[in-house]
Amino acid sequence: MENSMQMNLNTSKLGMVSTASKFKSRAYKVQVISCRGRADGNTDFYRVLRLDRTENVGLDEIKKAYRGLVLEYHPDVCPPSSKDEYTKRFLELQMAYETLSDPISRKMYDYELRSGNGWMDERGSKFPRDVWEKQLDGLKKRSHARLMRMNNMYR
Amino acid sequence: MSSLFLIGDSDKKSSKSDGSNIQNSTFSKLLNFAPPFCISFHQFEVMAEPAYTVASDSETTGEEKSSSAFPEIAIGIDIGTSQCSVAIWNGSQVELLRNTRNQKLMRSYVTFKDEIPSGGVSYQLSHEHEMLSGAAIFNMKRLIGRVDTDPVVHASKSLPFLVQTLDIGVRPFIAALVNNIWRSTTPEEVLAIYLVELRVMAESRLKRPIRNVVLSIPVSFSRFQLTRIERACAMAGLHVLRLMPEPTAVALLYAQQQQQLIHDNMGSGSEKIALIFNMGAGYCDVAVTATAGGVSHIKALTGSTIGGEDFLQNMMRHLLPDYDNLFSSRGVNEIKSMGLLRVATQDAIHKLSFEESVQIDVDLGNGSRICRKVNREEFEEVNQKIFEKCESLVIQCLLDAKVQADDLTDVMVVGGCSYIPKLRNLVKSICKRELYKGMNPFEAAVSGTALEGAVASGISDPFGNLDLLTIQATPLGIGIRANGNSFVPIIPRNTTMPARKELVFTTVRDNQTEVLIVVYEGEALKAEENHLLGYFKITGLPPAPKGVPEINVCMDIDASNVLRVLAGVVLPGSQQPVVPVMEVRMPTVDDGHGWCAEALHRAYGSNLDLVTVQKK
User: Fold this and answer.
1) What is the complex's ipTM, to 2 decimals?
2) Which residues on A lie below 8 Å from B266 (Cβ)?
3) What is the dihedral of CA A123, A129, A131, A134, to 10 degrees?
4) For residue B325, how far is the Cα from the chain centroid?
5) Full-model pTM
6) What InterPro entries does the record point to (chain B) (predicted)?
């Protein structure tokens, strides 16, 4: 439930910013969070960004931390052999950054952290996420292997 | 890059890639091809069979070995609707390559004459003259990957060659007039011929074979259009390393310039937010980027198919209101008149960027003659709608990026239309900024692709000039058809790439055993108004009341911008997906897909429909 609340807040905020934009005020609900890089639902976004949670981290520091980590984990800069792993990490990093760089979603996230609920949607409990993600991983590995085979010919 | 292509290289002369024979024999031989045979520049062993062979490019694995110890630096190519250019990182900076006539910017056109087509890279005769004969095909970037119901294709009917539509969603009929006979071609073929010339030009300049390229593309290109660009490149023997939306290439150049200014190599330092407005002959794109420490983070992209060509067409119709009537038939004389008017109008528009008024005097050869003065105000009035559209793109992009005009550090106007005073003024006034002067507006995009080419080839620079990174965003939303005929984005527009998102859907009928996943790309609310990327069925759902099965649709864009759609089904209470997860690489559609969505609807109605799961 936390997720959908967060998303709703986000969309309504966007709606305010951009009344001119017809793209923002759609009828469908946006429920996007849950394809996270790690199966672990309690990822600490502050830790992902290598920030100390106790301290009052400013937006500039979050941006700075993000940019520094992007240079480490963006799949464009990683060794070709570990593209998959880096893509995963990047997705996690991106999720952490997007949550913490938006004042409203950050507040929500901080609140959830304090109340100890973790950052996991309700569906996670009944949805066999592990199975799903294992399958996705398997498929990814196969596609990756295929991609590598294809890329080889360009070497 | 799993495209298939036909190898027409039946000649016994092997074209091993040692670079020596490329200029002469291979070149002329390879240009000498007719549709639908697309000659691959792949360097195969001698093919004994004279027949055209279909080969998957993966079959070449292991046959090619890189001859040099240094990694090959990919070249950057800016394929413009009107002009093209090639650039490369030369070890210390970006250098634009010149053709034999010492030009850095080359006209984008191919002339079909006497069996051997030739393009604007090498050909000697003037474009203007060729245009009058109907033998020159141009504006291929506007036509590529579009079906004949597309308004852009319809607007292209006024070009001085043949563009015919049947309005049924197939590829348009495009032909050049060669010795009074229409010779049909395709935008991919024209582009491939042109790319071969660019490649030969680059190979002779750099004295090595060229294989890898980074191309700039319009923001509004669909993934299907990207496959057509890749196809054209494959036909020309080029491997696409990256396709960069044009303004993001400019953003990368900007990031490098800022990096050079402040010697600062980590994410620290001040963040600079820049808006890039890029308008050429065919497309208008806007991007907002946040740059610091060599990292260009694309915040938002907007784009549209408006460009110099629209200014030109509006002006031609303004000067000759009877334009469409006069040229409804395509004889040699009509083409000549159209060409003459086109050249004169183009010239006038160009001059109006620097002068308040200009005298037009053109004899169309069919008895009518246009002799009058045109002033800048008139030009601006005739094109009012285009300027308004440009304005809305800039405003939209700022909104999408969640950036106020006051937050901007720099504002760039680049591309072929960048000298039009009205355009410069409108961007300046929205952004409340003077324009950035640090880059050549015609060379910015190609320079950015050359930088990306070097970075993506793994080249490093001792002075840190290549410590660059672009964090790209998706230019268009990607989603599926659900909730009736609605388009439900799964990866919204301006999502950072690589990306992975998922949504849960469910069935609309009791005991529905199959669902149809129709994947679209775009921004329109109605599914069929977006670009169709492909479709597949999930079959074998166990009977269950409607709304019970959870159909999880996940979309994944990896670091190479490859889109995969994954779909799995779970029933509540079960621990296993009830059917194996489907993984489909998109796009899957081919030419003539324009009628697909309609045909699907006719065949299946809403029987295999989906709805989004509403959270309780």
Assistant:
1) 0.75
2) 67-68, 71
3) 160
4) 32
5) 0.80
6) ATPase_NBD, HSP70_peptide-bd_sf, Hsp_70_fam
